[in-house]
Amino acid sequence: MRKSVVLITGAAGEIGHSLIRRLHERGDAKIITLDLKSLDESLAPYVERQYVGSIVDNDLLDSILAEYSVHLIFHLAALLSTRSEFTPRIAHQVNVGGTMNLLEFAQAQGRSHGESVTFFYPSSIAAYGFESLEAKIAAGAVGEDVHNSPTTMYGCNKLSCEHLGRYYTRHYKQLDVETPRARVDFRSLRFPGLISAFTVPSGGTSDFAPEMIHAAAKGEAYQCFVLQDARIPFMTMPDAVDAILKLTFAPAENLHREVYNLEAFHPSAEEIRQLVLKAFPGAEIGYTLDPKRMAIIDSWPEAVDDRAARADWGFSPRFGLEEAFDEYLIPNIRATYADGSVD
Ligand code: SER
User: Fold this and answer.
1) What is the CATH number of the domain that holds 250?
2) Tell me, what DSSP letter sits at residue 275?
3) Does the pLDDT value for residue 185 go beyond 70?
4) Is the minimum distance from the CB of 81 to ligand 1 under 6 angstroms?
5) What is the dihedral of CA 16, 19, 20, 24, to 10 degrees?
6) Does residue 49 fall inside a structural domain?
7) Cα(132) to centroid of ligand 1, in Å?
8) Predicted confidence (pLDDT) per residue in 214-227, tens digit
9) What is the pLDDT of residues 238-264, one digit of tens each?
């Protein structure tokens, strides 16, 4: 008999970090992970087995299939938006090719154990694209199905994978004589920028917000690469992980879409700076514009309409902007740097 487990790819990344802890607290799943990097030592005891390797390595995926029975996959591995822009072909290989491999893996798992595999996929506001700042401002809070012409490789990859997930869930091998016994159950969230008190992202374009906050907490000067009025939606990492778990475990009959928007607040860069200065009055935060990264931020919506998430599976973030700073970010970041435990 193969052991029944949950698989997390990209587990050593920011979302993986928080998700492993939360799944461990729930206590109802054995976790295996796949990442190019080993997990942080503090997380290693929470997992049954770590595979250090790539999602584009099909032999490795076959060996996981042979050993484990997987009913739930959190497929988090990806290159983020800024990094993808420098290496678009590799981004496509990893972000889309890797997702195809995992969808095939999920389908094969379902075929072998006879039940559909729930497949959580983190999409992004990068799946949107505006040609101009005027168009972005005019659009306001956007619904899921409009303005889907991303301008970045990462955004194109996210949108492609949303479609692939929908295909595997609804139309997989539609010309076969026999309908597959178990289809993949693909569920996805279009995340806004995420801010964690415990980790800092790398290679993203929304990184200016977490970078600004963490730099101030460390007493380091920071030059923000977008201008004062740059505005996109954000949320805290605990709210993001709550949302992942709520969506993943929601009854299928409540879900009316594969992909949901969500956000908690959408401050300008200057509003974030002011909150950081309130907490760390001596912080040195200036602006040195990177016009190309700013153009990416300007192509993303300033806010999203997340009514479907609220209605279908009860999305309800705990932290608004002020609470995010006062109750989650600042106290935890202070404590983290005070005891030197940041990753
Ligand atoms: N936060 C991501 C990035 O900036 C977008 O999903 O790449």
Assistant:
1) 3.40.50.720
2) H
3) yes
4) yes
5) 180
6) no
7) 19
8) 999 999 999 999 99
9) 999 999 999 999 999 999 999 999 999
181 lies in some domain: yes
CA count, 13 A, side-chain hemisphere, 296: 26
Asked whether residue 341 carries a pLDDT value surpassing 60, the answer given is no
| Ligand 1 proximity of 10 Cβ (cutoff 6 Å) | no
Cα dihedral 13, 303, 218, 25 in deg (nearest 10): -40
Q: Is 205 in the pocket of ligand 1 (CB under 6 A)?
A: yes
State how far the Cα of 6 lies from the Cα of 249, in Å rounded to an integer: 13
Looking at the structure of the chain, the number of domains it has is 1
Examine the pLDDT at 39 and tell me if it is beyond 80: yes
Which residues make Cβ contacts (< 8 Å) with residue 76, sequence separation at least 6?
Answer: 8, 9, 10, 11, 13, 15, 16, 19, 122
Q: Which atom of ligand 1 is nearest to the CA of 82?
A: 7
Domain annotation covers residue 22: no
* 10 belongs to a structural domain: no
Q: Verify whether ligand 1 is closer than 6 Å to residue 191 (CB atom).
A: yes
Mean pLDDT across the chain: 96
pTM of the model: 0.96
pLDDT at 340: 60
Strand duo 118-124 + 185-191: pairing: parallel
Average pLDDT over residues 174-189: 90
Closest to 218 in 3D by CA, of 103, 334, 80: 334
Please indicate whether residue 260 is annotated as part of the active site.
Answer: no
Domain limits for position 135: 78-339
